[in-house]
Each structure stands twice: as C-alpha cells, then as structure tokens.
Amino acid sequence: MPTPPPCPPSALDDMSEVFDALGHPTRRRILDLLRASPGMLVGEVAEHFDVGRIAVMHHLRQLEASGLVVSLKQGRTRQLYHNPVPIQLIHDRWTTEYGGFWASKMADVKYAVEHHHSSEGTDDGHHDEHRATGLEGRDSRAHRGRVA
Q: Are 96 and 21 within 8 A, CB to CB?
C-alpha cells in the first residue's frame, strides 16, 4: 500500500475541529438546516430545537470555528450558510487513498482469477468465480474470448 503524503500539522488541527464539530447531533442537524435553507437567521435556526438560543449560539460558534458555517452580518442580523469545503477536504484526503488501494486489490483478484482459468485451460466454474469476485460482465466476456 502506498504511503500517504505527510499532512501539515495545521491541516490536522483544522480537521480535528471539523470532526469535533460533526461529533454532536445538534450541530449536524444545524448543518442540514443551513444546507436546505441557506441564509437562515440565528433565531430561525433556534426555532428548530428544544434548547435555548444560547445553546444554539454555542453550537454555531463551534461550527463557525471549524469553518463549516459562514455568517454574513447585515445590520443586527446574521445570515448563516453551510460551507462544505472542510468536509470535501476530509473526503478527498481519505477516499483518494483508499479508492486507489481497493482498486489495486480488485485488479489483483481479477488477474488471479484470469490466471487460474488460463492455467486450467477450461471454462468450467468460470461464472461462479466471477460472480463471487464481482467481475461479471464485460471482463468476464473478454476472459471467455481468451480461453476459447
């Protein structure tokens, strides 16, 4: 498995804040609300919860500190917006790495199955193995063409 590139300490700190912010169900619900209705006011967000406005403000401060919420002050009101960039950075960091890892493993399985069949010189049981490895379809048809 390839070694991931080193992550700068500041990026790790930023991610910790994002994970902490996402760790509470109230904050995740606030993000859902802001994603569905961009520009909500603090009072409008607070109406969706059974806790006081002060508690909602506490959650909003954590979401803003993590970068998941951006506020735009207009006079005495603050419009709130969901910022998906920190979540996208987390997604990109791990899915790219693991996506490559699992694609490599699936290719290894595919080549092992093809090698097994070509060394046997028969097509018996071909469909069952491809079904078990999820390699049915185009690869399976290509394989049959080579064996026949």
A: no
Rounded CA separation 148/128 (Å): 17
Pairing mode of beta strands 69-74, 40-41: unpaired
| DSSP per position, 54-87 | HHHHHHHHHHHHHTSEEEEEETTEEEEEE--HHH
Give, for 41, the enclosing helix (H) or strand (E). strand 40-41
What's the predicted TM-score (pTM) here? 0.60
The per-residue pLDDT string of the chain (148 residues; one tens digit each, 9 = 90 and over) reads: 444 445 455 555 678 999 999 999 999 999 999 999 999 999 999 999 999 999 999 999 999 999 999 999 989 999 999 999 999 888 888 777 667 777 778 888 888 988 887 777 655 544 444 444 444 444 444 444 443 3
Pick from 120, 119, 104, 113: which is nearest to 142 by CA?
113
